[in-house]
Amino acid sequence: MTQSITIGKAPEVQYVLRLADSCLILGQRLGEWCGHAPILEEDIALANMALDLIGQARALLTHAARLDGQGHDEDQLAFLRDERDFVNMTLVELPRGDFAFTVLRNLAVATWLKLVWHRLAASSDAELAAIAGKAVKEARYHQQHAADWVVRLGDGTEESTTRMKAALETLWPYTAELFDSDAVDQAAAKAGLGPASSEIRDQWQAEMGEVLSEAGLAIPEATPFVSDGKRGRHSEHMGPMLAEMQYLQRAYPGGVW
Amino acid sequence: MSNTTAPKNEWPLWEVFVRNKAGLDHKHCGSLHAADPQMAIQLARDVYTRRQEGTSVWVVRSDQIVASDPGDKDMYFDPMEDKVYRHPTFYALPQEVDHM
Fold this sequence. Notes:
heterodimer, A: mainly alpha, globular, B: alpha+beta, Ubiquitin-like (UB roll), three-stranded antiparallel sheet, 2 helices
């Protein structure tokens, strides 16, 4: 087994890492659909989106490593950190669920990422701005693709509506974390690095509300629950997922094919 | 081409045409199943333009394409075999006409 690595707690590093890990972990979850999607064409579409997210994660991890200055690379950050050192939003690590849950989560995350990328395109950090400029186009498509499915299924058959409603109930409480500001993102906002989480909430609510209402779905009531993945406290689903994701590099350090 | 006996639960088939550069023709590149035009365009993008093949995509319901009958191939196309005079190269041009 290869020794685990840790990364610095400086706010700018953590800020970039939260975004990087959220992209990486959702990419990994979407990748689980490969060979299992309901139709071949959608199988390819989900794999494309997974690869877009992993591409975004690679750029961000490389950048976080540079800001951290310990000489790590993207692969080490992805494969050699322990669960508590991952700072993704809990929402993205939840099991892939059924297709309704997957497209609804994709909608929630793509809408969030699109708004974040849009703001980051004006970041004081030129590298981050460049990554965002490229990623925003990908997120826009992911949002449109997911919105299309949410409307189809929400406003579809009895079965599809039931599943969308169940997905919405499961997923909604985890969206609070996306907008839960803390010292890390307040420091980022102050430095002009990027928006504080809470600044994105209204626009996100508006865009989600539009799609959900077209789908005939009601936004669930807010609950006091706020998940805490971005501070390293994860759900029970994170460990098994990381075990699978990291197995190869842990067992065969530096292995390539 | 059109399959009128398709199972009821199957989405219709669409033919996909991709243009890879402005100014070029849209070229037929394959087909896919989709429930409606919007889904067909999105899936065409995902399935057929993953490697930067496209700048524009068309989709057409396969059952909307009218095709010649393969059984008519001899009658339709073979008679052209000996009509070389239909090619401009058949005609000798006077010397004075350059670069035609």
